[in-house]
Specification:
Radius of gyration: 35 Å
Structural class: mainly beta
Distance between the termini: 98 Å
Strand content: 25-35%
Helix content: under 10%
Order of helices and strands: EEEEEHEEEEEHEH
Number of domains: 1
Length: about 250
């Protein structure tokens, strides 16, 4: 294992964080593994991190311990990983189906003893059908993320929006499968396409609420029939002294 610059991280978190703090890497004959430490705003013991493994050739054999193998994702394997990376935190696996741009993934959430919300997510990216000559490679991703103030939706945003920013220079390496086909309505008449309206391009601008104008009202008491309105006080009358007489000083 060796530390590499943060710019060499295989996975990039979404804009806005969490940020990459450090990257520890190990190279194999057929791939590479990285532990990408993320910024942590939590009192729960442990480090927020991405754990990623990238394999170029799944069938590479070596007499020494220099080949990378991916284990099949099972409930027992995930439970062991969570006990190791989130010790003492009771995690609950979600039964909801979740999918990002790389395919489906699973996740579990739990509350630590200090009140922080923790997320553990796992994803295996590999082609659904094997290549004709050589395997297309695979990518294994794990995310451990705890935060003192974030909600479950905010923690999941990191798993939904991360980006794999590395690849092998082999023409046969393609764990993502074939690109989806183009829509049949593309270029046709009477088939408008608005990426802003569909939510596929960026995000919609926030809708500002209308301005609220507050008017002050004078509340007048309602008098009963038996009550009479009090007369308004008479204006004060200022008496001017008569002219031609001495002015008497006021008493001390």
């Amino acid at each position: 294992m060796s530390e590499v610059p943060a710019t060499k991280a295989v996975i990039l978190p979404p804009p806005g964080g969490p940020s990459v703090v450090a990257v520890v890497e190990r190279k194999f004959l057929n791939g590479v593994t990285q532990e990408i430490a993320l910024s942590t705003a939590s009192a729960t013991p442990g480090q927020n991190a991405f754990y990623v493994s990238m394999i170029n050739d799944l069938d590479t054999l070596s007499e020494i311990d220099d080949t990378l193998r991916l284990k099949r994702v099972t409930p027992a394997l995930v439970e062991t990983e969570m006990e190791d990376r989130l010790p003492g935190v009771p995690m609950r696996t979600s039964l909801f189906y979740a999918q990002n741009k790389y395919g489906p993934f699973g996740f579990a959430t739990g509350r630590s003893s200090v009140g922080d919300l923790c997320l553990y997510a796992w994803q295996q990216i590999e082609p659904t059908s094997p290549a004709i000559l050589t395997p297309g490679g695979a990518v294994s991703v794990r995310l451990r993320l705890c935060d003192a103030e974030a909600t479950e939706e905010q923690l999941l945003r990191t798993m939904y929006s991360y980006t794999i920013s590395a690849y092998f220079s082999s023409a046969d390496w393609n764990p993502y499968g074939e690109a989806p086909p183009v829509s049949a309505s593309l270029g046709e008449l009477d088939a408008p396409l608005n990426p802003l309206a569909s939510g596929e391009f960026g995000s919609k601008p926030p809708v500002r609420p209308p301005a609220v104008v507050v008017r002050r009202q004078v509340v007048r008491p309602v008098l009963k029939d038996t009550e009479a309105a009090a007369p308004a006080p008479a204006p004060a009358v200022r008496h001017e002294p008569l002219r031609g007489y001495p002015v008497v000083p006021p008493p001390p």
